Amino acid sequence: MSEYLDYLQKRNPLSRPYRTRLLYPKYASMLSGLGLDVGCGLGEFLLGRESFVGVDIDADIVAHCREKGLNVSQGGADALPFADGRFDAVLLDNVLEHLHEPERCVAEIKRVLKPGGRALIVVPNRNGYARDKTHVTYWDETNLPGLVTEAGLKPVKARHFPIPLKGLGNLIWPYNVYYLLAEKPQG
């Protein structure tokens, strides 16, 4: 078993219901059609969402998801194993902060999106960022919109969630996140 799979399976038990009952329904409400979950981890977002497929770089994660009957491929966020313009929606949930070359990942998201498709990029707040030694870049409303715009996507909506205030969420809520919904321009 990979170290990453072991880490995901041993996370705080309160984080699972928080993700499955609060975060994932919110994410799903902003995404429709054929979708891709990049860095899908244990595949929790994919459960019950047959129109979504997953991709993860870790072979043990992929095997774990496939054992649960989920459609998951192996691949990196900077080289997605899918055709251009295949997806209506892409979810990138708590992945970007791990990447040394995030520009390549966002370019790949744009590549696999159909014109008019939506990407939802979710990053942890400052508390969440500080809790993981594998995080390399802190993203928020000051730098994430620029990264997305440089890749050719158009920011549509951004918010701290579930506490809509950056400062308060950073102080008292370790699971507060910042999300940016962006669209690939038509044509």
Topology:
Blueprint: H1 3-9, H2 15-30, E1 35-38, E2 52-56, H3 59-67, E3 72-74, E4 87-93, H4 102-112, E5 113-124, H5 126-130, H6 144-150, E6 154-161, H7 166-172, E7 177-183
Parallel strand pairs: 1-2, 1-4, 2-3, 4-5
Antiparallel strand pairs: 5-7, 6-7
Provide structural commentary.
Strands 3-2-1-4-5-7-6 form a 7-stranded mixed sheet, sandwiched between helices. The chain has 7 helices and 7 strands, in the order H-H-E-E-H-E-E-H-E-H-H-E-H-E. It is globular, with a radius of gyration of 15 Å. The chain is an alpha/beta fold and 187 residues long.
Descriptive labels:
187 residues; alpha/beta; single chain; globular; 7 strands; 7-stranded mixed sheet
Cα distance spanning the termini: 44 Å
**SSE ordering:** HHEEHEEHEHHEHE
- Report the sheet with the most strands, covering strand number, pairing sense and barrel closure: 7 strands, mixed
According to DSSP, the number of beta strands is: 7
**pLDDT averaged over residues:** 92
The proportion of residues in beta strands is 15-25%
Radius of gyration: 15 Å
Q: Uncertain spans, ≥5 residues at pLDDT below 50?
A: none
Helix tally equals 7
Shape: globular
Relative helix content: 25-40%
Structural class: alpha/beta
* Strand line-up across the major sheet: 3-2-1-4-5-7-6
Nutshell version of this structure?
This protein is α/β, with parallel strands linked by helices.
